[in-house]
Design brief:
The structure holds two protein chains of two kinds.
Chain A (H helix, E strand, L loop, with lengths): L2 E3 L4 E5 L4 E3 L2 E3 L5 E8 L6 E7 L7 E2 L2 E6 L4 E6 L8 E9 L7 E2 L3 E6 L1
Parallel strand pairs in A: 2-12
Antiparallel strand pairs in A: 1-4, 3-9, 5-6, 5-10, 7-8, 8-9, 10-11, 10-12
Chain B lengths: L4 E3 L2 E4 L5 E6 L6 E7 L6 E7 L2 E5 L7 E4 L6 E5 L8 E9 L2 E7 L3 E5 L1
The chains are: A mainly beta, B mainly beta.
């Protein structure tokens, strides 16, 4: 079974600064996907960024980028130029590459943006 | 708005009552998942449909829970004889198997059992 660990229950960052959210996972699979999801207060969960395990290049989506370390089973999210709208719960998730591709989530990190 | 809808958005019920939730996924998506999220936790997998076939159920899904996806379109999740421990947000995920970029959550149904 896969497990996902987010060791930072809460983080805060000054507006316009950079913040990094940590995530580690445990799996015996070699082919899988990793995701970061954002869940704003009382709003829908949306996909922020995804990483295929077979790709060495770290994924980037505008101000969001990841640092994927496959050997260390680490998958951190960096948010640059933080904006007030980035305030949310952020969940790291794992999904294997075959069969029932259910998502396994971490417990989340609550990100606060300080104006 | 992700295009996935869930109804109702909120449900308050008394212990022992039955409740039913509905999820309408994106029409061309053949995979549908139900998750449960309790306060301060990440979502937990409940069950999975590919078209109309229910292919996996979590151990979290006791015999009081049943889910259907008739004709591979909308899905319903029913909880019988609700308990206070069933209070949670129930999330639906709509997914197209050919593309991992197309995963969309619905807004969820928040269930409160008194």
């Amino acid at each position: 079974a896969q497990t996902v660990t987010q060791s930072q229950p809460e983080m805060s960052v000054q507006e316009a600064e950079t913040v990094t959210l940590s995530c580690t996972y445990d799996t015996s699979e070699s082919d899988y996907y990793l995701f970061w999801y954002k869940q704003p207060p009382s709003r829908q969960m949306i996909l922020v960024i995804r990483q295929e395990a077979y790709k060495q290049q770290n994924a980037t989506e505008n101000r969001f980028s990841v640092n994927f370390q496959k050997a260390a089973k680490s998958f951190s999210l960096k948010i640059s130029d933080s904006q007030l709208g980035d305030a949310a719960m952020y969940f790291c998730a794992f999904r294997r590459d075959f069969g029932n591709e259910k998502l396994t989530f971490g417990t989340g990190t609550r990100l606060t943006i300080i104006p | 708005d992700t295009g996935v809808s869930q109804d109702p958005r909120h449900k308050i019920t008394k212990r022992g009552q039955n409740v039913t939730f509905r999820c309408d996924p994106i029409s061309e998506h053949n995979r549908l998942y139900w998750y449960r999220q309790t306060l301060g936790q990440g979502p937990e997998f409940l069950t999975y449909f590919q078209n109309e076939a229910q292919l996996e159920k979590s151990r979290l899904l006791s015999d009081r829970f049943s889910a259907e996806r008739p004709k591979g379109s909308f899905s319903t999740l029913e909880i019988q004889r609700t308990e206070q421990g069933d209070s949670a947000m129930y999330l639906c995920l709509s997914d197209r198997s050919s593309s991992y970029n197309e995963q969309f959550f619905g807004p969820g149904t928040r269930l409160t059992v008194l």
